[in-house]
Design goal:
The chain is of the alpha/beta class and 300 residues long. It contains eleven helices and twelve strands. The strands form three sheets. The protein has a seven-stranded mixed beta sheet with strand order 6-5-8-7-10-11-12.
Length: 300
Amino acid sequence: MLKKLKWLWNRICDGFEQYIEFAILVGAFLVPFRFNVQANVEFDKPSMDVKELLIYYALKHGNVYIGIALVVLIIILFHRINKDRTMNRGNLYHVHTMFWYSLCSWILGYKTCSLVRVPIATQFKLVLKDTFQHYDYGSDDAYTKAEKDKIIIQRCVKDDKGTKAFKIIDQTADTVAQGVDDEVINIAISDTYPIKEDMLPDSCYNSHPTFVIQRESNIKTRVRCYSPNLIHTVNDFVRNLPGVAEIHIYPTTNPKNTFRIVEDVFKTAGRDNIQKLYVHTQPNSSKGDWKFSDKAKRIY
């Protein structure tokens, strides 16, 4: 019970400002009915000012139109207030639906959204759909730039005894990709910390080809890095897949690398063979269980 109350409290705190703004919009629509504004307000012929015209014609046509006019005026005000503000502030894990993000962008006028402490599948959707004009992945000072980051490509295999293992492939990303002969492929992107064999579900070993693209330096350290080589390798790999129509991603990428991977690799306006993209997530838990879910979030 205490855990559920804490979860509810975090959700309220996370969206408190937006809840208040939507409540104001609802209240603005209901005010004319409560006070019968049309019957109690006298109005003169307006000037050519757009706002005055809106109010004039609303007053002439009844409380419903008055309510709509008030809502429109307040939405304009919110757009001015929120254009320089950022969604997802505070030290919370931001779990919102895409519908909620869309409402906050279109109606409340938020232009910027933080990707920090947001589920990676949601990060993919936000960036791909251009829900906001700008995305904040944290200060550049928070990322060490890994200029000479070595990237290792491995394939998930099982030996004769059924033991799971990663086999290192001594080939370039484009060469490995060109040898894939399946329409469905799994790609694990090991960035902020290494992905271990048991962290991937059994389906990665039993069904379609699964490859792990890993930053070598994250084997020893978990420093948050901006890795152009990682992004370039993922791009080379995906771009050279022959006839693959469905990709499943298992990522441990930080927000900056996630943003660049989505922008550079998957935002192609349909100019590739990929018809379906899925992201598999890890539990948001402090219990140390970091196994990826076998159930995926569909991105498109």
